[in-house]
Amino acid sequence: MLLVLLQFLSVAASSSLRCDPAFRGACKPTVEEKPTCTSILLSYCEDMAYSQTIFPNIIGHRTREEAEAGAEYLLLSVVESLLGGECNPEVRMLGCSVLAPRCEAGRALKPCRGVCEAVQRRCGRAFQAIDMAWPYFMDCDRFFFSEQEGCYDPLEGLSAEQRAEAADVLPPDDAASVIHFVHHSNAQMISVLKRTEERCSDIARTYSIGRSADGRELLVIEFSNNPGRHELLEPEMKYVGNVHGNEVLGRQLLIYLAQYLCLEYRLGNERVQSLVNRTRIHILPSVNPDGYEVAAAGVQDSNYGDEQEGLRYDTSSIGRNNAQNVDLNRNFPDLTSVVYRRRRQKGYRTDHIPIPDSYWFGKVAPETYAVMKWIRSVPFVLSADFHGGDLVVSYPYDVSKHPLDRNMFSPTPDDQVFKLLARTYANAHGTMSIESAQCGSSRAFSQNGTVNGAQWSSFAGGMQDFNYLHTNCFEVTVELGCERFPPDEDLLTSWHENQEALIKFAELVSSDWTCSPTSAFSLCVCVCVCVCVCVVPQAHQGIKGIVKDEDGNGIQGARVSVRGIRHDVTTAENGDYWRLLTPGIHIVSASAPGFSRAMKKVRLPSRMDSAGRVDFVLHKSVVEPDVQEEADSIPSLGTYDRFDPYNQYERYATMTDLSSIREERAEKPWWWSYFALPGRPAPTWLLKHY
Asked: Would you indicate the residue range of the signal peptide (predicted)?
């Protein structure tokens, strides 16, 4: 009996251990299903050259459902939109070769590393343009293989043209020389500017002046023979576009201009080379990239589906303002009204008017703030701001001097100079000065394509008045046509209409010359000083020079005055200055606290090759009574230097956008909301600086 009982217990024990994995060999082995090839059911990968894939895929997704739920596949679904159509479809196909790898005979084939590297070389800058890291699952060294290891081409099936472009077959020179006359998304715009910088690194540099309300970069590209630094006596000018997000032609023209300057300089165009070598040109294609996004989406919506029912949305104002619904060209400090209130005071001036402290307690847009800091930090001489909705060049003032604020001709002290600047652009434009071609509400006031802003339509807070009254910069507003968002097919024509005007306007301050006492038109002036003005028939106006002390050191902040014009300019860091003037005889003086005033008489001929050189040497002395009286009648330079003295801008930004939304917007790129979804891990691998 005992033996039978022991056998029974042994059988029972072995039975209970049969499924216990702790006992090796006691459990029945689990048979796992062998992976097999299956049809590609990922919709964004269905155009691959193969039809069979396998799971787990290369990055470990075990099922199609797991792959579809991942941030990697989400990126592939929106990458075309994020990059503005650039690098499509090769980036998507490259990602699909990892998420849905090619399967043959029950095994996954390996995509080729060489193809991956070619796509990354071409498209890496497009990701940089939107501040996104190159996706980890498209790491060429980690997930792609060499031909020696046996691999397949993930871009198989593309057309010959697409394959050549994706594989970098085109020589870099040819690839960069093509200007595409189409609209550019924000990502495409930044990518073009970055490529232009790379292509012409000896004369071009990009830099950011800040970010928009939604976090988009405000990117500038500059051209100079020494990009990145101010050179003594080399004038600086700027072109600014897209202040109103729905007025996009200026934005496009400035993108084309950047490419044109790079291309023509390298091709040996002597005119372009002379311009770039003699001038530092700053180009800001878009002040309002957030508004542009809204405007572009509005145009697409108006063209989608409704025309068959005879409907079309009115897109005339969609995207005009920034993301905070601020009209940026009404958001600058109203210094013109300050001038009008003080014009009866003895010794009043119209230059370097300080920003009233009260301004900072209002709604200051981040774009406005960035532009103000920019123009205060660079000694700009000349500027043009591009808009749409009319065909005319407008010049200051924009605010009417009429006591009831009715439209009225309201000139600046430099009215003749501004009329000359406006005529230069209008006359060089293909049609602007032709009366029959003019459009919009300015037609009733336009004179050969130019108009005084306040006479046409008075408004406060504009950028061109601020430039003139707060800095040395003379700015005009160029209205490029009545169609604010023209179709692609009109862009080439618009470029041809504006190309000469863009170059000729910049040449107004270009300067490169030598002068000797025997030069033609040289002239001896009063105060025992001989001034040489060398002249060749071109279109340069004004004077430039250096204000020094007796030891030869440049004096920063010295004032250069012209008799009869209540508007001074001040010297830059090394004592150099530029003063736009019309032809004629001018009495010019230089002064600075602690120095005696120096004065010269200068004759400027009607046609000049460059700005006349007029230097001053100031002698130490007790402050002159007239200088002291003038200083007492206006805010001091110390007051002028006050910029947001109470840090009110930062307080406003914190108060209006509240807590974490503003903080995340500042810390994360604008596209982050696509991927930061509730209940899913945040794909921090997309962040460049994580």
From this structure: 1-16
